[in-house]
Amino acid sequence: MEKIATICVYCGCGCGLFLHVEDGRIVGASPSPAHPVSRGRLCVKGWLAADFVHHPDRLKTPLVRKGGRMVRGSWDEVLSLTARRFKEIREESGPDALAVLTSAKGTNEENYLLAKLARAALKTNNVDHVARLCHAPSVAGLGFALGSGGMTNPIRSLLSSGAILVTGSNTTEQHPLVAAHILEAQSRGATLIVVDPRRTQMAQLADIHLAPRLGTDVSWTNGILNLIIDLGLVDEDFIIKRTEGFSALKDLVVQYTPVEVERITGIPSGDLEKAAVAFGEADRAAVVYAMGTTQHSCGTDNVLALANLVLATGNVGRDGTGIYPLRGHQNVQGACDMGALPSVYPGYQKVEDPAARERMEAAWGTDLPAEPGLTAVEMMEAAEEGRLKGVYISGENPMISYPDRDQVMRALSSLEFLAVADIFPTETTALADVVLPVASFAEKDGTFTSTERRVQRVRRAASPPGEARPEVEVAADLLRRLGVDADYASPEEVMAEISSVTPSYGGISYQRLGISGLSWPCPSRDHPGTEILHQGSFPIGRGRFSAVEQQELAEDLDYPLLLTTGRSLFHFHTGTMTRRTHLLDRERPKAAVDINPADAAALGVRSGTMVVVESATGSLEIEARLTEEVPVGTVYIPFHFAEAPANQLTARTLDPTSKIPGLKRTPVRIRRAE
Ligand code: SF4
C-alpha cells in the first residue's frame, strides 16, 4: 500500500493527510503527524476525506444537451462548442455578457487559469466564487483596517493566547482542528469567550457565553470596546505609534453603554463586562470569527468593529494575538489570492490600477478590461435580466448555496449557454448545456492555500474516473481555443507563472513546499514565508480604526421569527461529497429546523412534526427538531440538503461594500404542514 501526502478537501484548516492507495484505488486516509495543524489528528470528515472519490455517481464522460436531453459527447465536441458559444455571445452582446464562477474547492492553479480565462480570453472581469458568500467582508474590512484580508497569525499561535473571543463560528463543527487548538489553549489557562445566538458546543464549553440577538454584532463589539476604554485597558502606545482614527471611534463607542447594549442585543450587562475585562486584561488576546459574522447585510461593519477591538488593545503582530477569519472551503483563501474576484488580479492587485493592469497585460500578452466585474449574486440578477448570457461554472452549486433559490433557477435557466465542470451531478449541472467531468482533489496535482495563508501541495493519488480530466487541463485547453497562449506542461508550470505575477507568492515553488508548505507573503526564493503578519508595520502604513454604528434592524410582524443557517459537522457545503460518504450521511441523513421548545409549544409543534417555514422570499416543508440550542425567537436550518434547501428562504439583501448577502438573518414564520 502506498501513502500519498496531500491536503484535506473540506474546511480551511488545511490539515495534512495521507491517502492510502492499493491497486490504484484509494482505500483510506490517515493524519500526518508532522503537519503543523493536523499534528496526528483529523476530524471525522478528514478521516473519511476520500470515501466519495470512487463513488459510482462520479461524472465520467463529457455531456452535451441535445434535443433537451444530456447525451454523451467527446471532449473535443464540448470544448469546441463552449469556445464557439462564448465567442458568439461576446461578438453579439459584448464581453460583459459572459462570466466565470471558479471553485474554492479547486486548486490555486485551476483558479488562476479560470480567472485568466475570464480576463484574458473572454475579456471580462465578471469572475467570482464562493468567497462572495463567506469572506468578502473580511477581504474588504480587514483589507481596509490592516491592509490584508488574510488571517494574521497561524492557527497554532492560538496556543499562546490568554483570551480568545470566538464569534459567529460553530468552531467544533466547522473548523474542528482550530477548535482543538482553542480548547487546548483554554486548558492551559486562556479564557474562552464565545459570542453566538445559538448554544453551540463551543458556547457550552466557553468560560463566558454571550448570546446576542441576530444582527446586533456591531453593538456588542462597540460595547466591549467602550468598557475596555473606560477600564483603561487599551494599548495607548500601540494606538499612538501604529494606528489612526482612534479619537472618532472613541467618541462614537461612548454611546454603547452596557445598558444600551443590553437593550439592543439582549446580552446582560454584567456578562458584557466580564467579557470586556477578560479580553482587555489578557496580555495576548485573539479574535476568531467565521460566517456568523460576515454573512450579514452589515458584514463589513461587523469585521471592521472586530478589527477595532484588536487594534485598540494592541493585539496584532505578536504570537498569541491577532484576528482569525476562518475560511470555510479548503481553498477559498487561495481562490481569492489567485484573483478569482471581480476587482482584483492575483495578489489583490486592483484591476482599476493602471500600473497593475499594465503589468498583467504584459505578463499575459493581451489587453485586459479596466472596469471591475459583477459579483456572484449580481451575476444571477444580470442573468435574469438578460444582461448575462453565457457562464462557465466550476465546481459550484449555486442552486443550493446561493440566496433566493427560485431566482437562481430563473437566472441559470435563462442563460443562452451554461457550461458546468464538476465531479458529481448536481442541481446546477442539471441546468447546463455542457457538463465537463473533472478530477477530484485526490486525482490531481496542485496547491491549496489554507485559512492561515499556508500554501500546500496537493498530490495525485489515483487516476480520474473514465474520461474525467484535471480542470487545469480543461482551462488551458479552453484558453488555447479562445486564442490565448496556454502551453503548460504541468500544474507546476502554472505555479511558476503564478509566482511571477503575484508578489506575495513570488518565492513559492513546488520544490519549496515540503510537508508544512509556506505562508504568504513569501516574496522571494530565499524568503522563509510569513506566519505572523503586521509585526512591525502594516502594508498600509498605519492600522485604521473605523467608527462603525449599529444598523437599524427592521422588524416584520408577518414574519416574527428569525432564521439563521449553517452547517453540520457531518456535511460540507451543498453535500455533493459528504452526502455520498456513507458514514457521514448516516450521522445526519436529513434536514430539520431547530426550534426552541417555548416557540414550538406556541406553534403546537413537537420534534418530528412536519412544518412549513415561510419567508418573504419563499417557503419549504421540513421536519421540526426541538432544542434549547436556539434561543426563543430564533430558528436554525443547515443548508446542505437539496430536499429542504434553506436558501429557498433567504433573500438577496447585500452588504453595500462587500456585496455578501445577509444569509444569517431572515425573518420567517412557521406553521404545521397540512
Ligand atoms: Fe479536514 Fe477541516 Fe477536518 Fe482538518 S478540520 S480534517 S481540514 S475538515
UniProtKB/TrEMBL annotation:
It comes from the Archaea. GO terms for molecular function: formate dehydrogenase (NAD+) activity. Residues 1-57 form the 4Fe-4S Mo/W bis-MGD-type domain. Gene3D superfamilies: 2.40.40.20, 3.40.50.740, ADC-like domains, Dimethylsulfoxide Reductase, domain 2. Residues 655-674 are annotated as: Disordered. Its EC number is 1.17.1.9. It is an enzyme of class 1 (oxidoreductase). SUPFAM superfamilies: ADC-like (SSF50692), Formate dehydrogenase/DMSO reductase, domains 1-3 (SSF53706). Keywords: 4Fe-4S, Iron, Iron-sulfur, Metal-binding, Oxidoreductase. PROSITE patterns: 4FE4S_MOW_BIS_MGD, MOLYBDOPTERIN_PROK_2. This is Formate dehydrogenase subunit alpha. It comes from Candidatus Methanocrinis alkalitolerans. The lineage of its organism: Archaea, Methanobacteriati, Methanobacteriota, Stenosarchaea group, Methanomicrobia. The gene is fdhF.
